[in-house]
Specification:
The chain is of the alpha/beta class. It contains four helices and six strands; from the N terminus they run E-H-E-H-H-E-H-E-E-E. About 30% of the residues are buried.
């Protein structure tokens, strides 16, 4: 099996805001390249191959997304789902590329939750993400694949340490 790990993409609301102004909080401008990346590993010589794409934290930059003009310090399921919708509007191609990748044989995607996308720990957020992708992405805080441990690593920085069993206080 081929395991590919991508981390810290920091998808925001897209390159431009509704008013056409440049979004200075956006960090990800490579939707087209991500699409090409997904196509490469789900077609040609990789079409039948077992390929596991691991999105290793901070894929969505939920901490820099305003919902209806409000930046909240609260992380809850409803606000997370609404923030995912805002990100989707600016990055439809990214979500479509993941869905198309997963529709090929022997492909899987896992999403390891990081500190910028902590809201993805909510079941409703995961379900909504999967609905937008159009296929099932698996979510975890860490994982082991063929003896390799994968985690986002933010818990090793004191300010970001959160016990997994009490993720939300």
């Amino acid at each position: 099996m081929l395991v590919i790990v991508c981390s810290d993409l920091h998808l925001g609301k897209g390159k431009f805001l509704k008013n056409g102004q440049l979004n200075i909080l956006e960090d990800f401008f490579e939707d087209e390249r991500f699409k090409e990346f997904c196509e490469y590993f789900s077609s040609g010589r990789h079409y039948w191959a077992d390929v596991h794409l691991v999105l290793n934290g901070d894929i969505l930059n939920l901490i820099q997304i305003d919902v209806e003009g409000v930046f909240s310090h609260i992380i809850d399921e409803e606000l997370t789902v609404r923030a995912i919708d805002e990100i989707y509007k600016g990055h439809k191609l990214f979500f479509e590329a993941l869905g198309k990748f997963l529709s090929a044989p022997n492909k899987q995607v896992s999403y390891v939750i990081g500190n910028h996308d902590a809201g993805m720990a909510f079941e409703g957020a995961q379900k909504h993400f999967n609905e937008l992708v159009g296929n099932e992405v698996n979510f975890a805080f860490d994982m082991n694949i063929d003896g390799v441990h994968i985690e986002h690593g933010h818990r090793f920085e004191v300010i970001n340490t959160v016990p997994p069993k009490n993720y939300f206080m």
